[in-house]
Amino acid sequence: MITIVIFTEVSREAQFDVTDNEKVYPLKKISEQRLEDRLLFHMVLDQKIPLYRDYWVVCPDGSRIPLKTGAVVRTKEFDELYAYDKRDLGATYSQERTIFKLWAPTASSVRLKLFTSSSTAFEYPMNRGEKGVWSADLEGDHHLHEYTFLVRVNHSVNEAVDPYAKGVTVNGTRGVIVDMNKTHPLGWEKTSVPPPIKKTDSIIYEVHVRDFSIHPLSGIQYKGKFMGFTESGTTAPGQFSTGLDYLSSLGITHVQILPVNDYGSIDELKADTEYNWGYDPLHFNVPEGSYATDPTDPVTRISEYKALIAALHNKGLRVIMDVVYNHVFIRETSDFEKIVPGYYFRFDYGGNPVNGTGVGNDTASERFMMRKFMLDSVLYWKNEYHVDGFRFDLMGIHDIDTMNLLFTELSREDPSIFLLGEGWKMDTWLDEDQKACIDSAVRMPGISFFNDRFRDHVKGNIFNEAQGGFINGNAGMLNGLFENVSGNSGDHRLFRTPGQSINYIECHDNHTLWDRLKILHPHEDEAILRRRHLLGTALALFSQGVPFIHAGQEFFRTKQGDGNSYRSGDLINRLDWERRAKFAADVQYIQELIRIRQHHPAFRMDHPADIAAHVSNLGELPDGVFGVFLKKVEEMDTWQDIVLLFNGHLEEKNVSLPEPGKWQVIAEDMEVKEDGLYETEARKLLLPPLGFTMAVQLSV
């Protein structure tokens, strides 16, 4: 259908035609629509015409108006006609030749612009092939040659960077052809990949590249860079470990890194003075240059990100990439929009961009070529960079079929691949039952979700600063707490398996837990706040599912009250390694709790049936006390019975133990020892205020 917008008086019977300068195609009006200042004629052709030619509408007075493709690219018929399933888009390099392929079905012509130097460029016509894919084959070794595509579409020529580019110039103004064999850091082929583990064996630690090392007392040489993750032997004041050694000492299994693909909100030439989290994607398949020691060298950013991954792998740590496929930095200037206008994004019936993400645009994962792009991209990161998982930003923007496809294809490459995401229900132009949100988790069994139910029960509603959670003394949060602590999985539950539940109380978004506690309890001293904080972390570590720790959470990270620090700079966001030294005893306490979780499978059950059989809510407890009983777990653990007690009150509480006999107290009053702090045959324990207590009976 062709819509003609008319701002002047015209006869209702006026004849309009379409021409390509060779033929004339009469238009037939099927309806009209009167708006305040305009008249819309909805018209059709009596025959199909190719979409990849330049057309004009011929008006009754003989004048001509360029005809542009619009909503037709968002139809099912368009997807069926032009869906291209081969995995050869982009620049395929060899020393003998480079083959370029670009999907641009509505383009009337495409030319390759190849730069043999920064100022010398040659243009080569590309040939249109099947499914609207344009290609060019250039002989010779083109390693490090820059290139763009000149795409004529909708009567204009747009210069675009290849969406599949593997390398880019500084600030991503051009794509770069790269011999990926020349990007491997020293020892890359010998890097030891950590063995596969179950999701419930995992503990995820989230960190931002720059935050990790930028503190002046981090002891790290490559501050704010990928290479900062590769340094061993670094220390903070007091000779406490920092950096890579510190990560290795924690007992975590996965390091989740905030976006590292090329993003648009930082000038890479001013990386030392600008800051951003990176949720503004520009080029999806290239590392961010501001984290490289030389952003002007296309190879350096690739090699150094690989070096980061290799360093973590060699320490037994897996890498999860935080990926942002739900939107682009600026839709109007994005390469997607320059190449196939209107296709990759969602629009409402009025042709307005949908803004469920809150940043001006939503990508359309339900369309074949956007879905394919996401799949090709994650497979590329997996196979070329050896990453171990992906965290999907605003995953509720994406559709269920896409997310399941990504898991299926990635798990073929790596059965232990870890996919997780933000399953919030987003206001986007997609049917509710198709959104990849947490309420539909049972339809995505391979995907894990940030469990906001767990978070809110433990620390309170993040959107209501006045509402506290269990650790704030809100006894009302006891209702529903056990459901989430026990994995919320099985028949008629939120998840199919406990491994889908990411149990977290803090992440990069919103206030840190320490800052939130300061808001809710402005008059409490530091010692009490620490107890509340550690109580929350203990809940996250000993709940069924997957514990998630925000970097610095273990030493009470503060952002000085900033609840949205995405561009607030180093002073607010950096990991404070002096604080790590100050709270060294608390860090050691968390390390010991992590070690106990990793040593005891009873805390890492993988099947809802096992949880139902062995995990129960301790009843008849004093007000404000929460308890979990792991009973008869000796077949899976060296312990027989385990009691977990969480006192959310400022007063001591007496609690009866569920079984008679000898009990070893493993954790009590901010002390922990796996082989026992002490042994007791008493039927009651005195719980310290705001304290976590663990008691066990050994297997006979």
UniProtKB/TrEMBL annotation:
Q: Which Pfam families match?
A: CBM_48 (PF02922), pulA_all-beta (PF21653)
**SUPFAM superfamilies from the UniProt entry:** (Trans)glycosidases, E set domains
InterPro entries, A to Z: GH, GH13_cat_dom, Glyco_hydro_13_N, Glyco_hydro_b, Ig-like_fold, Ig_E-set, pulA_all-beta, PulA_typeI
Q: Which GO-annotated molecular functions does the record name?
A: hydrolase activity, hydrolyzing O-glycosyl compounds
> Where is the Glycosyl hydrolase family 13 catalytic domain positioned along the sequence?
234-597
Task: Tell me the first and last residues of the signal peptide.
Answer: none
GO BP terms in the entry? carbohydrate metabolic process
* PANTHER family, A to Z: GLYCOGEN DEBRANCHING ENZYME
Family classification: Belongs to the glycosyl hydrolase 13 family.
**Stated name of the protein:** Pullulanase
Its source organism is Fictibacillus solisalsi
Q: What is the lineage of its organism?
A: Bacteria, Bacillati, Bacillota, Bacilli, Bacillales
